[in-house]
Amino acid sequence: MAYDKIIVVRARLDNRIRYALNEAKTQRLENGQVLQAAINCQLDTAYRDMLETKRRWDKENRPAQGYHIIHSFSPGEVTPEQAHRLSVEFAERLLQGRFEAVVATHIDHGHIHAHIVFNSVSCTDGKMFRDDFKAYYRDIRGISNEISRENNLSVIEPKRSEEHTSALQSRL
Predict the structure, then answer these.
(1) Any residues with CB less than 8 A from the CB of 129 and at least 6 apart, and which?
(2) Which pTM does this prediction carry?
(3) Residue 89: exposed, middle, or buried by beta-carbon count in 10 A (0-12, 13-18, 19+)?
(4) CA–CA separation, 116 and 127 (whole Å)
């Protein structure tokens, strides 16, 4: 089961990226691999790559600089390697090749969790990431649950009131 929380990054996107990529919180595997990945950018230049995308599309001064998703797993349900693989898959499905992102899996707490930090501006078309109720329940939570089901992990089922609210929102 993965639990997801999304945070709008309004300032200091560089700090969020630096926090996510903190090697003291990630695991170095026997083969030397650290549980970190970059999508549409490079790990060592991710922040600069994201800034360049904002400049290219003339969107440097938008209120949302990026987004930070914390993708958490139930204790004991996955290994660090599985959590990382599933988190990268989640980010790739959610962002559909349109946004730069870093994914880092942290093992410094009792539960394994990944930090996904991504640009608010698409590197392919300059459009902004849609951040609304529908995006959370259909896209973020829906993709997370879909991947959990595909990998035989437990799934958070929506409470009745969430289903009702979601159905009302989809009609609007």
Answers:
(1) 64, 67, 99, 118, 119, 120, 121, 122
(2) 0.86
(3) middle
(4) 19
